[in-house]
TrEMBL record:
Residues 76-88 have a biased composition (Pro residues). This is Restriction endonuclease type IV Mrr domain-containing protein. It comes from Kitasatospora griseola (Streptomyces griseolosporeus). The lineage of its organism: Bacteria, Bacillati, Actinomycetota, Actinomycetes, Kitasatosporales. One of its GO terms (molecular function) is restriction endodeoxyribonuclease activity. InterPro entries: Restrct_endonuc_IV_Mrr, Type_IV_Methyl-Rstrct_Enzyme. It comes from the Bacteria.
Length: 572
């Protein structure tokens, strides 16, 4: 039984037993299953009567509403979504002071570690620059040939089978009176001879077959190529040794090309211990004075660490801590001195035939866009090189890890002992005048180094008859020495020699000083030599009676003496 509901719908009445049949949802499209849509006003009034909150969503069990059949509609693309408005920037959050301080402290620590690594690298350079170099003389450059066996372990080429290995022994002499030809016709011997010939022919065929197989496999060609390569290698070693012996002959004759080649080879080998810090050195040999002029390129100034580390300031900034300028200058001079001593040692060690009379070394600093500056110059003769230990001790750090004072550094002290001039500040524009330059292989008289000039004066006067030399003073300006000539020679008696290499004219005061030195030494005569000229007052003074024992030789006279006695054509 169905009754009308308050909202106009249909409901089934409860049966007699009071049971309510389950709700049935008629299928869509049937006439008796149409459902009535509830009006909004009724639900609102019902909720209001029940006291429900209008804002709170409530789920109501309602019969499903029959939906009409879907109707196909044309496809219309959905409009693009409108861009969302940009989010407002969040307000800046102040950095945590503790975190900022931690980051700054970590940065300070890492930068300080990098500076310490630079110091360790520089200390390693100092140690390696102080290592002794190997002598690159001719004996050490000779090569030896050691044959290499064929890599294949196969035996050598098999010899051809010889008949002597197969021939049967001749029959014994049964009857001495029987001729030898009769014994050889013995039937047993002939059978053995025929069998031996067969074995020999068979061995020859097998040997030829094996030889043909070796040729086809390429083993013979490979062995022959190996032997030819060994012959070529032995010939190359012999040719190199022959050329080296020819260079040695030219070196003993003081030919400039041979001397310079050997010196530069020795200098390049010495530079091998510090390949990460190249210090090339060019050599020029002056055959007139038997002096080698070496031009050494010094490392850049930034090779020495200029910082001792980094520190954190009170306001949290990271700032570098500079080393004292005096320490930086001392470290660079220490490195330059060790490189110079190493070059001098290489030149001295290679000269086993005593061709060099002296060595002039100039240390040049070459900066891009600026002319080169000479920071140190050494003028040492062979005697000075022989009595000076050119290899300093490897230690360069004190007990407290601080670099030693430059004034007490061993390398600088030994370099100064060789009459070297060193700039006081390599970081300033303070250069020194080199004792000799490598540009002039045939120098003029004024371009001679102090050592070359002293050697020239002594050689000229020794050729003139003066012997028993005793040098009293020697320096950049010249020398003062005493010598004696044998009776009957061109320069007899005892002499006081004063020679100067400057171009300044000699004054009368210098002539008077020489006369006084002659009297004090008890000498017979005095000789004043100069690369320049004599003033008129000096020449007039020698005409007086008390100065008549003073003899004068100017620059032109020195050149003529060198050409006459030594065959040295010095340029003007």
């Amino acid at each position: 039984m169905q009754i009308g509901s308050a909202d106009g719908g249909l409901r089934r009445a409860p049966d007699e037993q009071g049971e309510r049949p389950p709700m049935q949802h008629p299928s869509e499209g049937r006439a008796d299953g149409a459902a009535t849509v509830l009006q909004p006003g009724f639900l609102a009034s019902l909720f209001r009567d029940l006291g429900a909150d209008e804002d709170e969503p409530t789920v109501v069990d309602a019969p499903p509403v029959a939906q009409p059949a879907p109707v196909a509609a044309p496809f219309v693309p959905a409009p693009a979504p409108a861009p969302e408005p940009a989010a407002a920037p969040e307000p800046a959050v102040a950095d945590d002071p503790v975190a900022a301080h931690g980051r700054a402290a970590a940065l300070t620590h890492h930068r300080t570690l990098a500076v310490q690594a630079d110091h360790e690298r520089f200390a390693d350079l100092l140690r390696r620059a102080a290592q002794p170099v190997s002598a690159m003389d001719f004996e050490s450059q000779l090569r030896s040939y050691r044959p290499k066996p064929y890599p294949d372990a196969a035996p050598d080429t098999e010899p051809e089978p010889a008949w002597a290995d197969f021939a049967p022994p001749e029959p014994a002499d049964a009857d001495p009176d029987q001729p030898r030809s009769r014994r050889l016709l013995d039937s047993g011997y002939q059978r053995e001879l025929a069998q031996a010939r067969l074995r020999h022919q068979r061995a020859l065929r097998e040997w030829r077959t094996r030889q043909a197989d070796l040729v086809d496999s390429g083993a013979v060609a490979a062995r022959q190529a190996h032997e030819e390569a060994e012959l070529a290698r032995a010939r190359a070693v012999q040719e190199y040794n022959d050329s080296l012996e020819e260079c040695r002959r030219a070196y003993r004759q003081a030919e400039p090309a041979a001397v310079e080649s050997l010196l530069e080879r020795a200098l390049a080998a010495a530079d091998g211990s510090t390949r990460d810090l190249p210090a090339p050195c060019r050599a020029v040999f002056r055959a007139l004075t038997r002096t080698a002029v070496l031009d050494l390129d010094l490392p850049p100034l930034d090779t020495v660490p200029a910082l001792s580390g980094y520190r954190l300031t009170e306001d949290g900034a990271v700032e570098p801590v500079r080393r004292p300028d005096a320490d930086v200058r001392a470290d660079y001079l220490r490195l330059a001195a060790r490189l110079a001593l190493r070059a001098l040692q290489a030149a001295d060690a290679v000269d086993t035939d005593d061709v060099l009379a002296g060595v002039v070394l100039n240390g040049w600093l070459r900066l891009p866009g600026r002319p080169p500056r000479c920071l140190l110059s050494v003028d040492a003769d062979r005697d000075a090189l022989a009595r000076t230990r050119l290899v300093p001790d490897a230690g360069h750090l004190g007990d407290d890890g601080v670099y030693a004072d430059a004034e007490h550094d061993e390398s600088l002290l030994r370099l100064r002992a060789l009459a070297a001039v060193i700039t006081p500040d390599p970081y300033a524009d303070e250069a020194v005048v080199p004792w000799g330059t490598a540009d002039a292989a045939v120098p003029a008289l004024g371009e001679l180094s102090p050592g070359e000039f002293a050697l020239l004066v002594r050689s000229v006067l020794t050729a003139g008859g003066l012997e028993d030399w005793s040098v009293r003073l020697r320096g950049p300006a010249g020398l003062v020495a005493t010598a004696e000539g044998q009776p009957g020679s061109r320069l007899p008696g005892r002499w006081v020699v004063w020679a100067s290499r400057g171009p300044a004219p000699v004054t009368a005061e210098e002539i008077a000083t020489l006369s006084e030195a002659v009297r004090e030494e008890g000498a017979d005569r005095g000789l004043r030599m100069t690369c320049g000229q004599f003033g008129d007052d000096a020449v007039d003074l020698t005409t007086e009676e008390r100065h008549q024992r003073i003899h004068l030789v100017d620059g032109q006279g020195i050149r003529e003496l060198a050409l006459t006695h030594l065959a040295l054509p010095l340029t003007v």
